[in-house]
Structure to design on (134 residues):
């Protein structure tokens, strides 16, 4: 059994790269709330990003990474592909809600990475749907 996904194309490898960052984010968020505060930068960051909220965000990142890991190795599964796509849509909706509706975050350096990764992933996965999903 190969350690890398055996499906053709680059999308499975992209998912693995994002999984690695999810694990890194999980470790960071469980060690300190500093990293979550940097992502959730805005008027509410200092009061609402508590150590508990940081660990919760880290756990959420880990769960999303786990879904993406399974999708990377089972990229032809319509259900896993759809779930992985949904994890990115949830990221976009969550951050859009915080910025536009609740106004608890501001667009800045901390938000750039999650938005870039989620947007790239959604566009890529939608564009490649018929290539990977039977």
């Amino acid at each position: 059994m190969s350690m890398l996904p055996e499906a053709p194309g680059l999308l499975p490898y992209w998912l693995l790269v994002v999984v690695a960052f999810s694990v890194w984010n999980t470790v960071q968020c469980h060690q300190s709330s500093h990293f979550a505060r940097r992502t959730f930068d805005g008027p509410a960051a200092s009061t609402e990003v508590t150590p508990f909220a940081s660990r919760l965000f880290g756990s959420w990142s880990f769960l999303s990474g786990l879904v993406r890991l399974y999708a990377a190795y089972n990229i032809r599964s319509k259900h896993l592909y759809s779930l992985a796509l949904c994890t990115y849509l949830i990221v976009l909706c969550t951050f859009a809600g915080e910025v536009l509706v609740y106004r608890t975050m501001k667009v800045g350096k901390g938000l750039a990475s999650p938005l870039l990764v989620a947007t790239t992933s959604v566009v890529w996965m939608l564009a490649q749907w018929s290539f990977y999903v039977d």
Remarks:
- Helices lie at 11-31, 34-39, 45-48, 51-73, 78-101, 109-127, 129-132.
- Residues 88 and 118 are 5 Å apart (CA to CA).
- The mean pLDDT is 94.
